[in-house]
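Milestone 3.1: sequence recovery, worked example.
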């Protein structure tokens, strides 16, 4: 009999989560109701932001974050190639041109030196970005103070894609506090740190941005009669003033997210322990873990190792043999600019060499709060045999 499959990530749903969801299902309001606002307030309290806007995914939150910042057709959005496609696609949804900044190979994060260099060039060619989307890969915050400083110098807005990073911090400011950005977006997909099943949430300290996002997540409809453009026909009236979407979160999802939030600290501590255990037991092998800068507390969404090998056959060999042993490894990520859709936009192999090399060596090992010691030991032993 083969060993059971160990996924790279998995949600932790307890009895109380289920109870809270069932309570909503039995209540009068299962789509829009009081829990969403309660969830938004709870998120803001934890990450120390003034406002939160819950959406049905991080992807939709990223889209309306770009819109709320006024990203327009022909303008530029920059992000990193080492991310999920959604960090880049949000720019394309707005008709913007998407470009990339190569990574720092030690952290896997958008490299501030590359950013500065590219900004200088863009300034002289008149191609500066309107929006930058730094991505906190694996739960580790980018160098936000430096990025913020550059944003003041070159005049761009910042959306932190913190899909991996709720519960982390940078310079003792919680990720999501928007100390160094305009908007932060978290994903609540089941593999992420906490989940609402599908779901995402944006945080900001800017009232107008929060308000705009709230209209955009609900068709662009304004209900406050004081803000109407026309004279209201009656007390039933509402006005569509923008072209929005149905990106709303439901009460059912919010109830799950809200209850999960209680265990955020527990989840992060558990993830830190797992990483430490991996490091203690496999650091002697020919591989490296992603570096976490001293001023950052990572939420360790992913346990990424990199092989010390330039050979992509070796990468596949290790990957496939882990899979053969039912270990659900992944690669986070194939560089976005090498996806066929982005190649059609004009990108090609060699454009961002550090990201490409990173991707040829990266493997994500299983990490999630309920993973058993036995499973982790199995990962360690299989990897040890393959690399010895
Ligand atoms: C998961 C993820 C997203 C998208 O999140 P959804 O909630 O599934 O839309 C965006 N960016 C990154 C970096 C992600 O990992």
């Amino acid at each position: 009999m083969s060993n059971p499959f160990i996924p790279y990530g998995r949600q932790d749903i307890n009895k109380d989560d289920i109870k809270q969801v069932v309570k909503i299902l039995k209540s009068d309001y299962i789509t829009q109701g009081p829990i969403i606002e309660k969830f938004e307030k709870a998120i803001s309290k934890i990450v120390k932001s003034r406002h939160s806007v819950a959406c049905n995914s991080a992807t939709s939150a990223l889209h309306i974050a770009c819109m709320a910042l006024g990203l327009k057709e022909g303008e530029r959005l920059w992000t990193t190639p080492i991310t999920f496609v959604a960090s880049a696609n949000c720019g394309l949804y707005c008709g913007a041109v998407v470009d990339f900044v190569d990574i720092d190979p030690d952290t896997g994060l958008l490299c501030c030196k590359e950013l500065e260099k590219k900004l200088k060039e863009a300034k002289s060619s008149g191609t500066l970005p309107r929006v930058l989307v730094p991505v906190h890969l694996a739960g580790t915050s980018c160098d936000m103070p430096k990025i913020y400083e550059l944003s003041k110098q070159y005049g761009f807005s910042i959306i932190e894609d913190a899909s991996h990073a709720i519960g982390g911090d940078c310079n003792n400011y919680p990720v999501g506090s928007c100390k160094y950005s305009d908007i932060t977006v978290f994903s609540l997909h089941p593999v992420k740190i906490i989940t609402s099943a599908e779901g995402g949430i944006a945080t900001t300290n800017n009232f107008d941005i929060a308000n705009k996002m709230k209209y955009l997540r609900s068709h662009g409809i304004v209900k406050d009669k004081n803000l109407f453009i026309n004279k209201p026909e009656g007390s039933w009236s509402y006005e569509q003033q923008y072209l929005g979407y149905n990106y709303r979160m439901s009460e059912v999802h919010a109830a799950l997210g809200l209850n999960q939030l209680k265990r955020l600290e527990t989840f992060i501590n558990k993830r830190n322990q797992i990483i430490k255990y991996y490091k203690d037991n496999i650091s002697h092998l020919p591989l490296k873990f992603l570096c976490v800068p001293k001023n950052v507390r990572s939420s360790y969404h992913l346990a990424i190792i990199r092989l010390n090998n330039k050979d992509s056959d070796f990468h596949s060999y290790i990957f496939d043999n882990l899979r053969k042993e039912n270990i659900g490894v992944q690669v986070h990520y194939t560089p976005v600019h090498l996806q066929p859709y982005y190649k059609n936009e004009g990108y090609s192999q060699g454009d961002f060499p550090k990201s490409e090399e990173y991707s040829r060596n990266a493997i994500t090992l299983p990490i999630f709060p309920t993973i058993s010691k036995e499973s982790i030991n199995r990962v360690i032993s299989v990897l040890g045999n393959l690399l010895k």
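The domain at 15-261 is CATH 3.40.640.10 (Aspartate Aminotransferase; domain 2). The chain has a mean pLDDT of 97.
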